[in-house]
Design brief:
Elements (H helix, E strand, L loop, with lengths): L2 E8 L5 H9 L2 E7 L4 E7 H8 L7 E6 L2 E12 L6 E8 L6 E10 L3 H4 L3 E4 L3 E6 L8 E4 L8 E3 L10 E2 L6 E6 L2 H28 L1
Parallel strand pairs: 1-4, 2-6, 7-10
Antiparallel strand pairs: 1-3, 2-3, 4-5, 5-6, 7-9, 8-13, 9-12, 11-13
């Protein structure tokens, strides 16, 4: 389980003016949705942005607040599309002995023999939804595609979850597959169309001879 440490400061004002001043002072306003109470805080924009580059929905962050340390996951965030700067972050507190649901990234490894033969790798699921205790959150699901040929696929049911982790996606869902190249498919369809046209022409010619 990957874990990050971030310092946080309490804030009491939630109006537009004070929030704007926080951002100008280089801080990001945030809210922690706790197990019992919610907490309004702010984090240093520079420090948190550096951490944010390396976190996912499965990364537990330890917020060092005035009330004590809180283990949280990122729930939502608001990012300025023009500047790329974070404007607001929502966290939710995780309890050490309580099951939680989150998403874990799928990491594809290996070189598929089907791709080497001209197929196209199609990744249908980039993450899986799981349920587990915070301590059991895996950093990622690794899927080896080395033996995957053209027309083969890895389904959710093929992925082995670590002990204590339950994958919530439908077992029949395709995670990754190797499909025929569009050019090959188009060529086959064109060939089939030519054969049908040829057969129709021959049939028509036979009827005329009769």
């Amino acid at each position: 389980m990957e874990q990050k440490l971030v310092k946080a400061a309490n804030r009491t004002e939630r109006k537009k003016g004070p929030v704007g001043r926080l951002r100008r002072d280089g801080r990001i306003p945030a809210v922690v949705y706790g197990q019992e109470n919610n907490l309004t805080i702010s984090v240093d924009a520079h420090d948190f942005t550096n951490v944010f580059k390396h976190i996912t929905e499965s990364t537990i962050i330890t917020l060092q607040t005035e009330q004590g340390d809180l283990d949280v996951l990122v729930k939502e965030y608001d990012e300025d599309l023009l500047t790329g700067k974070l404007r607001h972050v929502d966290f939710y507190e995780v309890a050490s002995g309580k099951l939680l649901r989150t998403h874990v990234q799928v990491h594809v490894t290996g070189n598929s023999k089907g791709v080497r033969e001209g197929g196209i790798l199609d990744i249908s699921l980039h993450e899986l939804e799981i349920e587990c205790l915070p301590k059991d959150i895996p950093q990622e699901f690794s899927v080896d595609i080395t033996a995957l040929g053209v027309g083969d696929a890895v389904h959710v049911s093929d992925i082995e979850a670590p002990e204590g982790v339950r994958i919530l996606n439908t077992p029949e869902q395709v995670v990754v597959s190797v499909v025929h190249a569009r050019v090959e498919v188009a060529a086959e369809e064109e060939e089939e169309a030519d054969e049908e046209e040829k057969a129709a022409s021959e049939e028509s010619a036979e009827k005329e001879e009769e």
